[in-house]
Inverse folding.
């Protein structure tokens, strides 16, 4: 390209008068989008950008695992309502159907100055826009006595795969009369109703296998939790006194855990010889987001609610659990919804596609016992500098059995739809 | 350059959006708004569990269904929350988009 022409293009881009005067459109060949993480946020973003730009944007998806096991509905696997196969998904169709380049590797560094992602293979992937959706990392030091070294003895099951299977194995091995202890996480964490749905599934399995003398204690650092009223009503109705929830005023804090003796010590009580201890620790954005300086205020990344753009780098979008989603909970549904806003904005910037005001949606269903499912959800918009709830709903006590059964049918339909929306 | 195609499509969408209000809904807007529906309703028309297929309805019928949720004549917490925040123009746009979809099993 001659100097004259380059100067002209630079000037044109700088003038910015054209709606489509983005350097990517004017200068180089195809604009490039790189996505880190093939989960609820990343897979959806890659799919929508590739599908809707019909070849105008090249999309590369970096994911370290060959198979994605969904954390969503992993409680249904633990409860025996779904097989492991049913919560496992591959990327082949996604890549093939939409021409997405799959990079099976770990992203080890984001070079924001050069606009490149460095992979564990040593390769560097240049990008015009980068989507970061790595999910969470666990704060291994948030529970005294617990660490990565003991995560098999006292599993968390808050990241998918082997951990989910460990939870099920340990649950199935609990003898009648045994005590299960769950340490719930502090806010903000992935899937607010998740620990309580999981406790419900523990009780379901114990009850169904005739182990009615078991006890499940939930030691919670929070004073209250998501859908508390309907969960506690359901526990009493279906499981009598089997599940007991203890807030911080009752247990006075977790002082220590000892994986060798399966002991948990709180301010008020020592629980010895537990049959199984499930430690769900505090959480933060996945490493790659933090090491790139996208979470300057601590554990999670601040985004612009109208676009899902990182506030520290306009070429980077952060989705899902890793971002601060305002009123939206950290859920697969939220990540999927945020991905579509980012995809729309990115197509606008790189391919001149039409853009629209951002809107978001979420619903979280929780199974308490067969055919008894509760839900919480809402619609959200960018307002007052955050993603703010515009319309919300939550299940109420004393609802009809028929409604609760319909909720479960929705839950089943949603899972099929969102996984198709991510992987097909 | 492939971008030109995308730009041309975007311009076409803009032209369509400027057709008189009583004409068909704004399909491009409908397509964007539909991304809020696809987490539950599959665009292929596949129906699973308690979530009905919503493709291929004649537009007037689709609008009537959405209005029934918006005015809370039909009971469903999820759909009432979805419809409550949609303007009539947006519902028309969704109707135009979903009417145009064919089953794709
Ligand atoms: C028990 C449980 C139950 C849940 N139930 C529900 C539910 O019913 N409904 C719901 O909506 N949500 C539910 N969730 C929450 C849901 O799983 C998460 O909110 C969702 O997965 C977040 O999506 P994400 O894209 O942010 O992260 P993820 O889905 O975790 O995806 C992140 C991906 O990035 C990859 N990755 C990370 N770092 C790198 C790197 N450096 N290089 C390459 N790849 C990388 C990971 O391998 C992973 O595949 C539940 C969670 C749990 C734990």
């Amino acid at each position: 390209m001659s100097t004259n022409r380059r100067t002209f293009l630079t000037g044109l881009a700088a003038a910015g008068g054209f709606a489509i005067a983005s350097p990517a459109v004017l200068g180089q060949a195809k604009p490039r989008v790189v996505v880190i993480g093939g989960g609820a946020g990343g897979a959806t973003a890659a799919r929508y950008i590739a599908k809707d730009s019909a070849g105008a944007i090249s999309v590369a998806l970096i994911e370290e695992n060959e198979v994605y096991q969904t954390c969503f509905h992993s409680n249904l696997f633990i409860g025996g309502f779904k097989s492991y196969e049913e919560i496992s998904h591959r990327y082949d169709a996604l890549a093939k159907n939409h021409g997405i380049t799959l990079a099976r590797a770990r992203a080890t560094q984001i070079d924001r100055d050069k606009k490149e992602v460095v992979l564990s293979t040593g390769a560097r992937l240049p990008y015009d826009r980068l989507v970061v959706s790595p999910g969470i990392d666990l704060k291994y030091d948030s529970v005294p006595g617990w660490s990565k070294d003991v995560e098999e003895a006292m599993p968390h099951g808050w990241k998918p795969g082997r951990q989910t299977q460990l939870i099920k194995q340990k649950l199935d091995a609990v003898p009648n009369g045994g005590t299960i202890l769950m340490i719930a996480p502090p806010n903000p964490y992935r899937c607010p109703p998740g620990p309580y749905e999981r406790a419900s599934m523990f009780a379901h399995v114990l009850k169904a296998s005739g182990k009615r003398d078991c006890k499940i204690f939930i030691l919670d650092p929070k004073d209250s939790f998501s859908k508390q009223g309907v969960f506690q009503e359901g526990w009493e109705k279906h499981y009598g006194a089997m599940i007991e929830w203890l807030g911080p005023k009752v247990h006075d804090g977790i002082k220590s855990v000892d994986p060798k003796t399966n002991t948990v010590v709180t301010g008020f009580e020592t629980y010895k010889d537990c049959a199984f201890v499930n430690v769900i620790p505090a959480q933060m954005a996945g490493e790659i987001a933090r090491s790139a300086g996208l979470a300057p205020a601590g554990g999670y990344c601040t985004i612009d609610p109208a676009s899902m753009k990182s506030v520290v780098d306009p070429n980077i979008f952060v989705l899902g659990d890793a971002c601060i989603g305002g009123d939206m909970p950290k859920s697969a549904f939220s990540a999927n919804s945020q991905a579509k806003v980012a995809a729309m904005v990115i197509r606008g910037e790189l391919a001149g596609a039409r853009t629209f005001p951002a809107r978001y949606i979420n619903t979280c269903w929780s199974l308490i016992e067969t055919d008894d499912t509760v839900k919480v959800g809402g619609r959200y918009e960018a307002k007052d500098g955050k993603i703010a709830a515009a319309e919300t709903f939550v299940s109420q006590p004393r609802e009809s059995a028929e409604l609760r059964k319909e909720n479960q049918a929705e839950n089943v339909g949603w899972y099929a739809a969102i996984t198709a929306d991510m992987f097909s | 350059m492939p971008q030109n195609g995308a730009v041309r499509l975007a311009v076409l969408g803009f032209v369509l959006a400027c057709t008189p209000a009583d004409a068909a809904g704004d399909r491009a807007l409908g397509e964007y708004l539909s991304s809020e529906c696809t987490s539950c309703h599959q665009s292929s028309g596949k129906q699973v569990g308690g979530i009905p297929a919503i493709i291929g309805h004649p537009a007037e019928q689709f609008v009537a269904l959405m209005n029934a949720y918006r005015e809370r004549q039909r009971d469903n917490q999820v759909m009432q929350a979805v419809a409550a925040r949609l303007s009539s123009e947006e519902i028309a746009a969704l109707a135009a988009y979903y009417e145009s979809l064919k089953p794709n099993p």
Notes: The longest strand of chain A covers residues 372-383. Residues A 36-42, 62-65, 68, 71-72, 74-75, 106-107, 133-135, 158, 190-191, 194, 198, 286, 288, 320-322, 330-333, 335, 364 surround flavin-adenine dinucleotide (CB under 6 Å). The radius of gyration of chain A is 23 Å.
